[in-house]
Amino acid sequence: MTLDAETFRALVTEASLSPSVHNTQPTRWRLGPDGRVQVLEDESRRLPVGDPEGRDLNVSHGSAVEGFCLAAGRRGLVVDVGHDGVHVAELTVRLGGVSDPLAAFLTQRRTYRGKFEGGAVAHAAMARFEQSEDLIVAQDPDHVAELARLYDEAGLRWFRNVPYRAELVSWMRLSRRHPSWSLDGLNAEAMEMSGIEATGAGLVLRPGVFETLDRIGLAGALVAEAAVVRSASAVALFHRPANEAPFDTGRRFHRVWLSFTQAGLSAAPMAVLADDTKARESLQADFGIGGERRLITAFRLGVAPARDLAAKPRLGLDALIV
């Protein structure tokens, strides 16, 4: 079959809901005259400080392609994913697909960075969640509290890196007046910040201000998230084979996150636990993740309060299709 433009646009729309590092949305799509889809990279969306080797970038690409494949399956289509050495990937779409149970949750998956609910609903959601061999799930409150402490320590080390902090802030949208508030990056609403908190974050993270606060011992408390992490029902450590291509890791990463949603759980990545060498080595030793495996990220898991959420910040098809 030849993939038509209308179906292609529908598939890209659903694929665009896939998670990406800092919500940079680096994946671009092109429909060729033969009906094959070229997956491309927007190089302007690289993170040269936070992701110099491009691992997170390629995890993001893999996640987007998995979203495309799941959306295709819901329409009775199969996607063959190939790599030609030129593009991120080349996709051949044909008839015969069967809808994957996870596909129904593509539009429901959300990042939730606030405090979680407790009680029976949270316990029921954790009971529904089916664990897998690439996840280590810590539910004991003492373990969660220790992971919260490690997370804040690692986060403070990274915030002290001035170029990293500047790069992160460049992807933060702390005011609704920001032109990309509803398009990409991490807006204050998505980060569960009030207007006052967002204004404060913009001040605290400024060059010079953060360093001054750090010298008098205040910076750590101002960027700490331990209280939020401790509200989680669990923290899940996601690990994969050390030699696995980041693109393939990204496909699995997306499926794992959708499995949380399927169980009724919300999640937020705690990527610094994997990015920070000291924290990663400590966790791999403490939780028995051997050298043949790589810690990819950690997720805090729980049930978010029931309320209407704003639409995800996403680029339009005019930017994603090239």
From TrEMBL:
<protein>
    <recommendedName>
        <fullName>Nitroreductase</fullName>
    </recommendedName>
</protein>
<dbReference type="GO" id="GO:0016491">
    <property type="term" value="F:oxidoreductase activity"/>
</dbReference>
<dbReference type="InterPro" id="IPR000415">
    <property type="entry name" value="Nitroreductase-like"/>
</dbReference>
